[in-house]
Design goal:
heterotrimer, A mainly alpha, B alpha/beta, C mainly alpha, B: Rossmann fold, Alpha-Beta Plaits, 2 domains, six-stranded mixed beta sheet, four-stranded antiparallel beta sheet, 13 strands, about 35% helix, C: mainly alpha, two-stranded antiparallel ribbon
């Protein structure tokens, strides 16, 4: 399993791809440094800053897109290059294969996304405990998307395309307009987790959250269910 | 467009040179390709593909010129309607049927839609893909794909078609089928062909004329019959007076060539061996080696590619 | 293939003596092929899913509006607002479908076959580009027609409404061209530089999704009331002064509004419609000379367009 893990990790870390993803993840920090450099206003961890940087940029953009790109590629590239066949021939259980692929995605995506949000928040003076909460919620959110899109990569070669439609239309538009959608939205869960863990710091999300327990259950169910579905798919599919 | 006459070469290169940065792919090549099937023989990296791409107008020459029916294809792209090209590498879409793809390619080559469909169907029949023409190309075997590649090069009825390593990647059976198709294209369809290969067997059995190319230069050319007729090639190594030996041989009507320090002669009659003896005696050269070598193409190829 | 060969021989090879079109015919054929590929024609049911889904995504909002207008008989959606709302969806449509026209050709080596035929690299790119533009434009205009019908249904006199507002038709066609040229060129340029379709789409979407909140924060308005203290009959009294608002980046804000690249074409379409329902972004853009957003739009179309052409012009076959 370690072998598959390191191999998958190397596949994910194409030179240009990593560079682009790093640049994307650095955007919140660069933005804050820019505003500081202009020196027209003092930023604090509140209101618009949380709304636009944490929700708008990180949770609504960087987090899903980075995670989806990596997670769909985990099996998608193997299918596209017709190498999955060799992988399933190895004397390794299917559970280990799915787990190795998922972990490879997480090992890259979690630190990147967490750093992306936490560094920016620390720069505008968020407290240590708030930063911890933020890191936890972002990591949970990355794991949820990763679980969903590891399965998607096994289902269709156009997984990332469908993923982008889903993120933009479902998570981006519908979950902000139709409140019921938030019960079936990773973004909805993430905002509720943040608000539930630290109501004071994340008061900005007050109007847009579902119940805290629902978010916890939702996150857990999605992660486990999609992992099992991916496992089932790998067991039953015709590997080309 | 009137049919080309024998006096006007189909393809012509004058001091054709192509550099890729520091690498010299083709250097000062003169070439005249006439009707029939011409083989371009040489090892990988000899400059065969580069020569073809220059004739197709895919590349611009660094110096010199490449012309097709008297036109420069890089400048006058309309001449490409009269050319067909089968690249060495994969060049087929996955999600199109062979029928649809060929019809499309015929149209891109200037044939109106209604004629293109008929041409596509005919061409697929000629290459033996009648049954499978409504299947997606993705599902084809290597041999079938190779035949679609040939068909797309012929679908617009070109005057000349350039086939870059048409047998690459095929098993012996598939290779023979492909070469047979190439022969039929040349002989029965009356389409002129330039075929490149690094395999002697391919050109020996298929071509009328052969151009041997290596290191970006032409090192030998002639009719296949010239190479394969009952001739014997001899290598003559002398310690000294090589120039005088050559002069004496030429005086006796024996053509000579220098290769790797040896004087190479091609003999058509056994009596010519006596002429060699006389020539050596006349100039009093010290003979080190007089070795025969069967006059087969594979031999030339081995020599020329060292 | 051996069994039927005797018969094949008998049919014989026929040379083609019919008419031959030149470059125009080649470009036209490539255009038709591009159009079919875009909508997924002749490629099986699976290839149609994404084009159909994406068209629905763009058309759904005006369709919902139309139904509401017909049933409730109220509401008005301006053509300019429709573009503002759907430009990101159109971009999504283009980012996912447009790379389909360039990347598979390069991956499969088909590009070579096109370039040895009587067309240039420029012709190839132009045919692909304009075919996609046409599809995107058709989808967009369909949406606008739905909006127009919805608006006239909601109006008291549909005929009168149309007579008064016919000018919107040429306007939304012009604005449609402006927006679709934008959403077509950028994904195609990105697709010229990557070998996997999905990455091209993800990159484009990522840039557009995150520049919106970035520009939002950079142009945030902060309002403060200055408070003055006065002593009035022995007591200290607070007096609220006038509210003072300023942008987080001060005078630079009007430039940072341009960072929201997704809005670049809608600033121009707002000019076409002479839209006077300003939101925050258009208030700031209005502070700039009109040449600036126009130049910015031009740069975002011509720049990627030039890169795209350069890439194909200098491609090593």
């Amino acid at each position: 399993m370690t072998e598959i893990f390191t191999l998958s990790l190397r596949q994910l870390l194409g030179r240009w791809r990593v560079l682009v993803i790093l640049l994307l993840a650095a955007m919140p920090t660069l933005l804050i440094l820019l505003i500081r450099a202009l020196g027209e206003a003092e930023l604090a961890f509140e209101g618009e800053v949380i709304d636009l940087i944490i929700d708008g940029m990180v949770i609504g953009g960087i987090l899903p897109i980075v995670t989806m790109t990596l997670a769909t590629a985990a099996f998608g590239n193997e299918l596209e290059d017709k190498t999955l066949y060799y992988l399933v021939l190895k004397p390794v259980s299917r559970v280990s294969i799915v787990l190795a692929k998922l972990l490879a995605t997480l090992v890259v995506a979690v630190p990147l996304v967490v750093a992306s949000g936490v560094v920016a928040s620390a720069l505008v003076g968020a407290e240590t405990q708030t930063l911890g909460t933020l890191a936890l919620a972002l990591a949970a959110s990355v794991t949820t998307y990763a679980s969903i899109f590891t399965l998607a990569g096994l289902l269709t070669p156009r997984a990332l395309a469908y993923g982008l439609v889903y993120v933009l239309v479902w998570e981006g538009l519908l979950s902000t307009i139709v409140s019921g959608v938030r019960y079936l939205s990773v973004r909805g869960y993430t905002l509720a987790l943040l608000h539930g863990l630290d109501e004071e710091s994340f008061a900005a999300f007050e109007q847009r959250v579902i119940e805290f327990p629902a978010a916890i259950v939702g996150t857990g169910v999605v992660i486990v269910a999609f992992f099992l579905l991916a496992l089932y798919r790998l067991r039953t599919m015709d590997v080309p | 467009m009137s049919g080309p006459t024998v006096s006007q070469p189909l393809l012509e290169a004058h001091s054709l040179t192509k550099h890729y940065g520091q690498t010299i792919a083709l250097h000062d090549v003169d070439m005249h390709v006439r009707e029939g099937i011409t083989g371009l023989l040489g090892p990988n990296g000899a400059g065969k593909s580069t020569a073809m791409k220059l004739f197709l107008g895919l590349l611009q020459p660094t110096a010199g010129s490449a012309t097709v029916l008297g036109e420069k294809p890089y400048e006058n792209i309309a001449i490409r309607m009269r050319l067909g090209y089968m690249p060495e590498h994969d060049c087929l879409p996955d999600f199109m049927t062979a029928s649809e793809f060929l019809s499309h390619m015929a149209q891109v080559s200037g044939i109106p839609a209604k004629h293109a469909r008929t041409r596509a169907a005919d061409m697929l029949r000629h290459v033996g893909l009648d049954e499978e023409r409504y299947r997606h190309i993705k599902e084809y075997s290597t041999g079938m794909k190779q035949r679609v590649k040939l068909a797309q090069a012929l679908v617009h009825d070109p005057v000349m078609v350039l086939l870059d390593e048409p047998t690459a990647g095929l098993d012996p059976g598939g290779r023979e089928e492909m070469l047979q198709l190439v022969r039929r294209t040349g002989k029965d369809f009356g389409i002129n062909i330039m075929l490149s290969s690094h395999l002697m067997g391919d050109v020996e059995t298929t071509c009328d004329r052969i151009i041997v190319i290596e290191g970006g230069a032409i090192i030998e050319e002639g009719a296949v019959s010239e190479f394969t007729q009952e001739t014997e090639t001899f290598y003559i190594d002398v310690d000294d007076r090589r120039e005088e030996v050559i002069a004496a041989l030429e005086a006796r009507g024996i053509k000579t060539r220098i290769s790797g320090g040896s004087v190479v002669v091609r003999l058509h009659r056994d009596e010519q061996l006596d002429d060699i003896r006389d020539a050596l005696a006349e100039v009093q050269a010290r003979l080190r080696r007089l070795a025969p070598s069967r006059g087969e193409l594979s031999d030339i190829f081995r020599r020329s590619t060292g | 293939m051996s069994q039927a060969q005797g018969e094949i021989y008998d049919l014989g090879y026929q040379h083609y003596d019919g008419p031959r079109g030149g470059r125009m015919q080649a470009v036209r054929s490539l255009w038709v092929n591009s159009f079919r590929t875009t909508v997924g024609l002749g490629r099986g049911a699976r290839a149609k899913i994404l084009p159909v889904l994406m068209s629905l995504v763009v058309i759904a909002p005006p369709a919902v509006f139309l139904v509401l207008a017909a049933v409730v008989g109220s509401g008005k959606l301006s053509h300019a607002d429709f573009y503002e709302a759907t430009s990101i969806l159109l971009l999504l449509f283009a980012a996912i479908i447009a790379p389909e026209l360039l990347i598979p050709d390069r991956r499969n080596g088909v590009t070579t076959l096109y370039l040895v035929r009587p067309l240039t690299a420029f012709d190839y790119v132009a045919a692909r580009w304009s075919a996609f533009l046409t599809v995107a434009l058709l989808v967009t205009l369909f949406g606008q027609v739905l909006v127009l019908i919805g608006n006239s249904l909601a109006a008291e006199q549909a005929r009168e409404f149309l007579q008064e507002n016919w000018i919107d038709i040429p306007r939304f066609i012009l604005a449609g061209v402006i927006i679709t040229a934008f959403v077509t060129t950028i994904p195609m340029a990105v697709a010229a530089f990557t070998e996997r379709r999905a990455y091209a789409a993800a990159f484009v979407i990522a840039v557009f999704v995150i520049t919106t909140p970035m520009s939002g924060l950079l142009t945030t308005e902060w309002c403060e009331r200055s408070v003055t203290f006065a002593v009035e009959s022995g007591e200290i009294v607070e007096e609220a002064g006038p509210e003072e608002c300023r942008r987080i980046t001060g005078d630079y804000a009007k430039w940072f509004v341009l960072l929201d690249v997704g809005r670049a074409p809608t600033h121009i379409s707002d000019m076409v419609f002479e839209d006077d329902t300003p939101d925050d972004a258009s208030i700031l853009v209005a502070e700039l000379p009109p040449a600036v957003p126009i130049a910015w739009y031009g740069l975002l179309v011509i720049g990627p367009g030039a890169l795209l052409l350069w890439r194909y012009w200098s491609m090593k076959i």
